[in-house]
Amino acid sequence: MKIGVALSGGVDSAVALYLLLREGHHVKAFHMKTEPDDFFVRKEVKKKVCCSPSDTADAVKIAKTLGVEIEIVDVRQVFKEKVIEPFKRDLLAGLTPNPCVHCNRYVKFGHFMDYVLAQGFDAFATGHYARVEFSEKYDRIVIKKGVEPNKDQSYFLARIEPWRVGKLIFPNGYHSKEEIRSLAEKAGIHVARKRESQDVCFIPDGDVEGFLREEGVILEEGKLVNEEGEVVGTHEGYPLYTVGQRKGMRFEKFGKKYYVKSKIPEENIIVVAELEGVHFSGLIAVDPVWHVDLPDEFRCVCRVRKKSEEAPALVRKNGEIVEVFFDRKVFAVTPGQIAVFYDGDVVLGGAIIKEGIP
Fold it and tell me: CA 144 to CA 180: how far, in whole Å?
């Protein structure tokens, strides 16, 4: 089979490439550039992020080590249009966006994948910890969780266009992270112990306020208001905060532990509540992507953030609106984040959270 592999320069994609070569496939590597190299020179990189100049150099070296051709693909314009600009817009709208999910949908498994397949490849592979398998229950090829729960990345893949799933290969989904590192060492891949990417790639210094300032947005101090409407403190600008957050706020009185419950962006106000007040009985989500055929009402488990616990729930579909009712209250349901629905290991779909239901 002819397979195009997204080679990021990290150990995961390197081993995915190696495993496919070992299986005898005809493989070519593709490396995408989301920012110009001088962007990372100007920024202080506090945490490991993807798509940096060092990643490009590592990708080229990996391809040479494994004896495959590599092509560097410029995706800067589509990345700006589909990831960076929506990220800024969502922050200003009071949301907490998930840029990795949007990058996967529109860039990596969108524009980039289209470019690769257009060159005559049968499939597109990455180093994600997930699986693509046929489901007898749903009578179609689906995305499933990776076998190692702590590394499973299916959450970030839930909004990929369903027709693409049959063209995807995730070799790493059947291995643990340590197995992948061990395979890399045995194959002589120099990034076997390279750190993982941990932050938003276009904010490598982690400074969201600085990012907004460069985009022409100046944040202003605002009020913290409790659920009774009483002013209890101040904040440094609503885009810097997310539902469930405790740090970074200045309170006039101490004694109660307050968390961000919601934001009123047009008034630069953050509503805070005690812990019980930031647990939600359900949510309303929009723009769903369904990977299997489902009735208008069904039960499943739902995850509202990558690291949140899955919660059993009743789901009601109504066109572009999805209503979710949890069996037990869930902490920090956050507008802008992604609700992902599972049946066991199977990804049923994902939608963008609009609001939490108290």
Answer: 19
Q: How far is CA 44 from CA 35, 40, 203, 218, 267, in A?
A: 15, 7, 9, 21, 33
Give the separation between CA 281 and CA 332, rounded to whole angstroms.
11
Annotated active-site residue in 51, 100, 103, 300: 103
Q: How far is CA 100 from CA 115, 170, 198, 245, in A?
A: 19, 17, 11, 21
Taking the C-alpha atoms of residue 354 and residue 326, their distance in angstroms, rounded to an integer, is: 16
User: Is residue 90 left, alpha or beta, with left meaning phi > 0 and alpha meaning psi from -120 to 50?
Assistant: alpha
pTM of the complete model beyond 0.85? yes
Question: Helix, strand, coil: what percent of the chain each, to 5?
Answer: 30, 30, 35
From 51, 100, 201, 300, the catalytic residue: 201
Two tokens, residue 308: 């949140």
Residues written for the chain: 358
Taking residues 266-289, report their average pLDDT: 98
Coil, helix or strand at residue 105: helix
Q: 152-175, pLDDT tens digit by residue? A: 999 999 999 999 999 999 999 999
Which tokens go with 323?
A: 């209503």
Interval 91-104: pLDDT, tens: 999 999 999 999 99
Active site residue 300: no
Burial of 89 (C-beta count, 10 Å sphere; 0-12/13-18/19+): exposed
Whether 100 is catalytic is: no
292: three-class secondary structure by DSSP: coil
Edge to edge, the sheet with strand 26-33 lists 70-74, 26-33, 2-6, 123-125, 168-169
Average of pLDDT values for 197-219? 89
- Domains in the chain with CATH codes: 2-128+170-186 (3.40.50.620), 219-273 (2.30.30), 279-357 (2.40.30.10)
Region label for 191, one of left (φ > 0), alpha (ψ between -120 and 50) or beta (otherwise): alpha
